[in-house]
Amino acid sequence: MTMHEPLLSIQNLDIAFGADRTAVVHDLSLRLDRGEILALVGESGSGKSVTVKSVMRLIDQQGGHVTAGRILLTTARQPSVDLALLDERQMRRIRGARIAMIFQDPMTSLNPVLTVGAQLVEAVRQHQPFDDGSAKARAVAMLEKVRMTDPLRRFDQYPHELSGGMRQRVMIAMALICEPDILIADEPTTALDVTVQAEILALIRNLQQQTGMGVLFITHDMGVVAEIADRVAVMRYGRIVEEGPVGRVFDAPAHEYTRKLLDAAPKFRHAATATLNDASAAVPPVLSVSHLTTRFPVRSRILRRHVANLHAVEDVSFDLHPRETVAIIGESGCGKSSLAKSLLRLIPTDEGRAVLAGRDLLSLGGQALRAARDDIQMIFQDPYAALDPRMSIRQILSEPLRIRGLAVEEEGLSALVERVGLPEDSLDRYPHQFSGGQRQRICIARALILRPKVLIADEPVSALDVAIQAQILTLLEELKRDEDLALLFISHDMAVVERVADRILVMYRGTIVEQGPALSVLSCPAHPYTRRLLEAVPVSHPAERFERASLSVPTAAPIYPVGTNIEPARWQTIGPEHRLRVEV
Amino acid sequence: MLLFAIRRLAGAVPVLVVVAAVVFTLMQFAPGDAVSMLISDEASDADKARIREAWGLDDPPLTQFLNFLGNAVTGDFGTSFKYKMPVMELVLERLPATIELALAATLVAVVIGIPLGVLAAARPGSFWDSFTSTFSFAGISMPNFWIGILLILLFAGHWHLLPSGGRAPWGMGLETMTGFLLLDALLQGRMDAFWGALKHLALPALVLGTNMTGIITQLTRASVQEALREDYVMTARAKGLGGMRILWRHAFRNALVGVVTIIGLEFGALLSGAMIVETVFAWPGIGSLLIQGISSRDYPLIIGLVLIYTAIFILVNLLIDLLYTLIDPRIRIN
């Protein structure tokens, strides 16, 4: 074995699926060295996930075959083996022991009926002759290594008792428990909050430096690449189109597609100027929310007594003006979506008013509520789940009109379809015939058919590829101007928020802790929580990497005993229109 | 957990009252007359009237029902017209036989159905899978009484391997302790009696369990296949685990909630199936007792038995709910 022999060398790999052997990866060559992090980048469907799964030979069960090429693994412990030629029994000795893998969604990747400890012990005992006691000791040590608090207690907990970030730490602990030579990470932070993502990326980087393993990191996010990779390989249509050191790829992308990816990536803190704000404070607000409070009862285990309340939304007040975009930012569980659902009366509220066009949305009932909903519509995060697969686009778009007893006019539907940038013949097609971006356009058209004054968009682009994200955001901005819409934009993605928001509300544990003009909040965040959110955003160029101080902000759910008196919010002005909540 | 069980049992009381009311009402409309079944046709109208009065049959229906409820609270379900014995005593004497049969049938279904289903799920489209699906469809679609008669002809009539009916050989001389023959034989260390009882139990249990076996096989196959598509199975494979370990420890454990649910629901079907199987095999359980009760218009016996069936069904499903919490840690009782 020479020094230059790579740890993993994929040579001229072809992968095909199904009985008819549809090729999905063509003539792919790639190498991974010891102690480096190689990012494999590409949009969904580019074949990156299939490629790394073929290294583990995990595609076999899904009907995939390596039809040509070699996958050479060369470690200090063993001479080169071609993984493509091994049988299942031999592969099992590689999986978990020499090459380990972590997956995108830590919520579903752990077995819900086995304890964390059982899953860790199983991983180590599969490959090493440990007895129960020493396997447990090893597992607890691993949990400590991935910086889980209270590892002994975690050992006996079930996955559902842990947060998403903690579950991904468990996945990492499980992957590294047999000290593999290679870690494959398949979009490991995509399903996580940006703050948790920063922690997990730092952890992977740190463990990689400690162990000297090679990391093959799959992502679609150029920010994550800038944050973590040593080298980058860009994939498209099952082929590598560009490969090189991370700095060179960012500074001088050789392939047109790489340039496109880099341009499409929303770059935080790089926007030329703040978005042009057409909204004027002189115009009366279209939606005026005051002291909105939504609490969910928490009941005791046995007698079901109402013992406490989860203050999902607590004393929230803000105005929304025509042609204005107000962004609500915060981590999952902070109450963003509960606020949106409260405004639409999809969940019951406890207190407060939300005046839209002279009517208080929160006190209306029956017919009046239905009429008021014409003025406030919503689009959801997942355009795949938000459309009824059995309804044609015509039916989807005309349903709101029918419910309101309005005439369905053919010209109106066609004009709307054209307005949101869908092909002319869309009306008689069904949702499955459209791509993710097109489906989100359908959702937008559906929301606009009643000509609302306010549009609530709950993470409208986070399920979409970056290039598509940019198109949808542009569409929303145009519609806002042309249709006099006011947008309430919920997002965890700071780069997206920076691009679209005129004003920002920062939500933390059910309350708004900071609010102000987007530029001001993003450039001079005042609340520690806002600072933490912004600092966690991945850099947009590898040269900007920095060590993040671990700012710890408590994120426990806001549960208070029944009858707890919550002080009304008091605000401290720290800039023009920029206000910070005074902590009691 | 105890509180949950108590609350559920308390909730069962109104269910039982409603069931009793429905059965009582239906019997008011049923053709035929208990009295004409009890005494010969030549009896005078005066005699008939006397009997009516003695049994309380000429009270208004509501009074009859309320009297029944009042007595039932004290554990008195009335006296059987036909057997001239307290209903409770009759039922308790026969209940162990039916429970023994139902449990044995469930055991047959679980022991055959689950492995078949899991193995079929592991290799979809294989010969094993097609065999399993043919087998389970046959089990679901063949009527109990027909399989019963077929098996009696083969095992008892043709090969003389197993008895054709009854619950135990004559003159076994086993002392009744629990009423469950297998248990009694074991408790008294009588292996000969145990074998005798087991031979009698084998055919009826197999026949009664056929339907449930088919259903459990199908459902296990579907649930395990679904579980095999989950992300955590990919994680398990990435850890280097072997196929069998992934199948049983990871996929099957997650599929078990659905399987257990269907066992609970199918137990109801099993009880009604037992009426037919008990009749075919001359099994002295409450199923055959109910059929006799219905044909002789033995109202107190019918109501008593229907209530026992309802209570068993409620108890079994309570047990299933408690079982969920052992299988899936995410399910918490509340």
Kindly summarize this structure in a few lines.
Chain A: It is a peripheral membrane protein. Chain A has 584 residues and is an alpha/beta fold.
Describe this structure in words.
The complex is a heterodimer of chains A (584) and B (334). Chain A has 584 residues and is an alpha/beta fold. Chain A has three domains: 1-98 and 182-265, Rossmann fold (3-Layer(aba) Sandwich), CATH 3.40.50.300; 109-179, no CATH class; 287-391 and 443-582, P-loop containing nucleotide triphosphate hydrolases (Rossmann fold, 3-Layer(aba) Sandwich). In chain A, strands 16-17-18-13-19-20-23-22 form an eight-stranded mixed β-sheet, with helices on both faces. In chain A, helix 14 (393-403) runs parallel beside helix 16. The longest helix of chain A is centred in the middle third of the chain and has 18 residues, at 194-211. Chain A is globular, with a radius of gyration of 26 Å. Residues 272-276 of chain A have low confidence and may be disordered. Chain B has 334 residues and is mainly α. Chain B has one domain: Orthogonal Bundle (MetI-like fold). In chain B, 76% of the residues lie in helices and 0% in strands. Chain B has helices spanning 2-29, 34-38, 45-55, 61-73, 87-122, 127-141, 144-158, 181-187, 191-228, 231-238, 243-280, 286-295, 299-327. Chain B starts with a helix and ends in a 7-residue tail after the last helix. The mean pLDDT of chain B is 89. Chain A binds chain B through residues 56, 58, 61, 88, 92-97, 100-101, 103, 105, 108-115, 122-123, 126-127, 158, 160, 171, 174-175, 299, 301-304, and chain B through 3-4, 230-232, 234-243, 249-250, 253-254, 327-330, 332, 334. Chain A: Residues 10-262, 298-534 form the ABC transporter domain. Chain A: It is a peripheral membrane protein. Chain A: Belongs to the ABC transporter superfamily. Chain A: It is found in: Cell inner membrane.
